[in-house]
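To the wet lab folks,

You asked to see what we're planning to order before we commit. Fair enough. Below is the target structure as tokens, and below that is the sequence we designed to fit it. If anything looks off to you, flag it before the synthesis order goes out.
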């Protein structure tokens, strides 16, 4: 008897590996094949993990800290996170990366059909995580004219009896937008009339802001009993591969999230937790140095983009991404959309960027400046070359447009 065909679970309908990862892996494949490709696709700092952090991990391994850790995190790390956030250790859950914190929260709180409001543009995994947990992601468009930020009136209009969460990300991936204290307070005023709506505040880029970037816990203390702050060491301390993040929230929520985590991964890696403790309690001067380096790269990128016809860009106030509007290139080149433009850029000039559709806002691309300056300059030169080629050739509808 032949085996039955593979059956994919319905919960995976429409869910694939993120377009960011797909493009990064495609660029790597082309390089291995000998092609000259530069990719600004991933949000991974080119700086090394600080030496004292690596030394702490090595010391922990040598000392035998290789056993199962507590599910919610080691007491030392939870205490350090709590001190930094002005919280209690019992309000902290340490997880295998900030992404697991998001998944834990959604799995612990959503029932089928519950709605989660997600301002767009948004990080690509938000909607898929909500869908996997049985919820319904609701996109709230936030155009460049609004600074890519959610307005109170748009929030008020989107809330329904099924709304369970609002997801905020400040500084934002992909736009670098930062909510100021007044803007957060205005959103909190709307939520005051809707006590069933909780807020997930993703603050993973908080140490990489070029303007003041308050935590929601500080800007809206009245929401503290229904706020989950997500943070970690991946971006600020260049520790992406250590897979270590955390959530800070009410004890009941943290307990429910720990119950989910206990059945999925148990506790986060003990060695990574020792490394994260060293990052939080060790020298902090490098944060300012790296923030200054990213700010200089931001200025370099924005100046170059401003000089390219067909492109406009709102300068990011945090993180290490630019999210330029490339509608001019799309229309001028006769492309169907931003994804078609990105495919052409990869084929024509060996430049890999992420289309805006991956973040819920077509007509844009995301460009990461977490790379070395020589790679950034090379990428910007290729983008300028591509724009010049498009401007020089006669307009004609692309194959994508003809076939759709």
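Sequence we intend to order:
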């Amino acid at each position: 008897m032949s085996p039955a065909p593979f059956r994919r679970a319905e919960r995976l309908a429409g869910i694939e590996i993120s377009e960011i990862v797909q493009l990064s892996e495609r660029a790597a494949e082309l390089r291995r094949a000998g092609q000259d490709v530069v990719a600004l696709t991933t949000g991974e700092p080119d700086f090394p993990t600080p030496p004292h952090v690596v030394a702490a991990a090595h010391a922990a391994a040598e000392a035998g800290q290789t056993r199962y850790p507590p599910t919610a995190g080691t007491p030392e790390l939870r205490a350090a996170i709590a001190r930094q956030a002005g919280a209690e250790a019992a309000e902290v859950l340490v997880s295998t990366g900030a992404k697991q914190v998001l998944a834990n929260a959604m799995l612990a709180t959503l029932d089928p059909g519950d709605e989660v409001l997600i301002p767009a543009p948004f990080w690509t995994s938000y909607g898929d995580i909500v869908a996997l947990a049985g919820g319904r992601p609701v996109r709230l468009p936030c155009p460049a004219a609004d600074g890519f930020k959610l307005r109170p009136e748009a929030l008020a209009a989107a809330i329904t009896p099924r709304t369970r969460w609002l997801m905020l990300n400040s500084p934002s991936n992909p736009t670098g937008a930062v909510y100021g204290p007044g803007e957060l307070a205005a959103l909190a005023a709307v939520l005051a009339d809707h006590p069933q709506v909780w807020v997930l505040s993703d603050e993973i880029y908080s140490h990489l802001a070029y303007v003041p970037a308050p935590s929601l816990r500080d800007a809206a203390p009245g929401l503290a009993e229904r706020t989950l702050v997500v943070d970690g060491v991946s971006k600020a301390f260049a520790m992406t591969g250590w897979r270590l993040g955390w959530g800070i929230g009410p004890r009941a929520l943290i307990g429910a999230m720990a119950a989910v985590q206990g059945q999925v991964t148990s506790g986060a890696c003990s060695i990574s937790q020792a490394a994260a403790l060293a990052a939080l309690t060790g020298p902090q001067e490098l944060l300012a140095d790296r923030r200054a380096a990213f700010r200089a790269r931001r200025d370099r990128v924005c100046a170059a983009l401003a000089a390219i016809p067909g492109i406009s860009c709102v300068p990011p106030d945090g993180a290490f991404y630019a999210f330029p509007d490339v509608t001019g290139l799309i229309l001028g080149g006769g492309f169907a959309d931003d994804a078609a433009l990105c495919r052409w850029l990869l084929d024509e000039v060996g430049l890999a960027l992420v289309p805006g559709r991956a973040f819920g806002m077509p007509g844009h691309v995301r460009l990461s400046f977490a790379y070395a300056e020589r790679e950034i300059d090379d990428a910007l030169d290729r983008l300028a070359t591509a724009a010049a080629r498009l401007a020089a050739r006669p307009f004609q509808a692309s194959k994508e447009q003809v076939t759709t």
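Structural context that might help your review: The domain at 65-281 is CATH 3.40.640.10 (Aspartate Aminotransferase; domain 2). The longest strand covers residues 163-169.

Thanks,
Computational group
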